[in-house]
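Here is an idea for our session: we take a single protein and study its fold together. To get us started, please write out a protein record for me. Start from the sequence, derive the backbone structure tokens from it, and show both lines together. Go ahead whenever you are ready, and we will take it from there:
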Amino acid sequence: MKATLLVRRRERQRPGAFTEIVIWQLPRQLPGSAHRYKYRLALVDREVCVLRYDNEAGKGDHRHRGAEETAYRFTTIEQLLEDFDADTRDYLDEHPHHR
């Protein structure tokens, strides 16, 4: 069985900012993760990735906020999307776009 692409989308959040979400279902768990998904969710603002949720082989689930990296407790795809959406809204509210 091969990996199956579940989600691939890019959405504009405001001028100069967008989110990109890519989620795959894998035939087996990725080392370091307790589930069968490979994902990358990113918020890019003014050409800089300011927020990213991802999992890497051996590194497991984690979140990047600017230069800070912290562990992320993955439960479900739905919760992952909700958490990312909440962090995205928080970032955009805290960093209004100035002209």
Observations:
- The helical segments are 77-94.
- The chain has a mean pLDDT of 94.
